[in-house]
Amino acid sequence: MGKTTWSDERVELLKTLWASGKTAAQIATELGDNLTRNAVIGKAHRLGLSGRITPAPKKIDKPLPVETNDVVAKDGGISLLELTEKTCRYPYGDPKKSNFHFCGGEAIPGVPYCGEHAAMAYQTNARKFSINENADFDTNKEGDALAELDDAVNT
Questions:
Q1: CA–CA separation, 68 vs 94, rounded Å?
Q2: What is the pLDDT along the chain (155 residues), one digit of tens a residue?
Q3: Is 154:132 a contact under the CB 8 Å cutoff?
Q4: 81, 84, 116, 122: which sits with the fewest CB atoms below 10 Å from its CB?
Q5: Same domain as 45, residue 97
């Protein structure tokens, strides 16, 4: 790769284009002579052109959806060490923070969640449904707990 010659004329054009808000890639294309965007950025930095008068528009990331839980943890929730096969394991909060906990409600046999959280966790086809609170789950019967849960769902 050859060394780029920065004539006074090219430097002035660089300053003008930089001040107008053009990107380094656009300036490199306009200056031509196989100039790279990195060469433009380097020269602009050496000239002290780091602050732009009208900066190029920045890509704005979409904000992350805010997590809302309509169901509140039973009795303030429980810690990881307090979980059993019979407690709801629905998580609340950020696992990296000290206030992270699990629901702790009574779990449906064969399912890691209570009825309310199972309804949230096992949605199908994005349709809303609720759990029949009066459904009788036979804990002594062998079978598919999710099938029993599905039978308890009201559409």
A1: 13
A2: 556 678 889 999 988 888 888 888 899 999 888 888 899 888 888 888 866 555 556 666 666 555 544 445 556 788 888 889 899 999 988 888 888 899 988 898 888 999 888 888 887 665 555 666 666 655 555 556 666 666 666 54
A3: yes
A4: 81
A5: no
Query: Beta partners for 153?
Result: 131
How many domains does one find in the chain?
2
Please name the residues in contact with 76: beta carbons below 8 A apart, sequence gap of 6 or more.
101
66 within some domain: no
- Residue 68 domain-assigned? no
Place of tokens 């029949």: 132
Examine the domain organization and report whether 38 and 93 are in the same domain: no
